[in-house]
Design a protein that fits this description.
Layout lengths: L1 E3 L2 E4 L2 E3 L5 H9 L4 H10 L2 E2 L3 H10 L2 H6 L21 E8 L2 E8 L5 E5 L1
Parallel strand pairs: 3-4
Antiparallel strand pairs: 1-2, 2-3, 5-6, 6-7
Helix pairs in contact: 2-3
Organism: Culex pipiens (House mosquito)
EC number: 2.7.7.49
Pfam families: Integrase_H2C2 (PF17921)
């Protein structure tokens, strides 16, 4: 630990006194980046015993985070056939560019693509 201009440091982190922890939790959680994001952000500059646990409790009790968190449901993995010959599997798409419409064709085997103005 070191002391500089009224602050106590643990390496590069400021040791936060108990009275300032609620304010620091508010700042760390302001971006609603989830538990791991908030912990990562806090560890860059702050330290107190039990900090990770306090952050976890703060994030888990946040109604905004609860409302907007992304679902952690597992999605079925989509598998794709691997081509063994050129032009065995091709993809196509239509797109607009500067007022014109184009057709794009791409070969999955070679990566070759071509497009034509329609």
């Amino acid at each position: 630990l070191s002391y500089y201009e009224g602050l106590v440091f643990r390496a590069h982190q400021i040791v936060v006194p108990g009275s300032l922890r609620p304010l620091m939790l508010k700042y760390v959680h302001a971006g609603h980046t989830g538990v791991q994001g908030c912990i990562r952000r806090a560890k860059q500059m702050l330290f107190w015993v039990g900090m990770s646990s306090d952050i976890t409790n703060t994030v888990e009790s946040c109604t905004t985070c609860e409302r907007y968190q992304q679902s952690n449901q597992k999605h079925e993995v989509m598998t794709h056939e691997i081509p063994t010959l050129p032009f065995e599997i091709v993809g196509s798409d239509l797109f607009h560019f500067q007022g014109d419409e184009y057709l794009l064709i791409a070969d999955s085997y070679s990566g070759f693509f071509d497009f034509a103005k329609l």
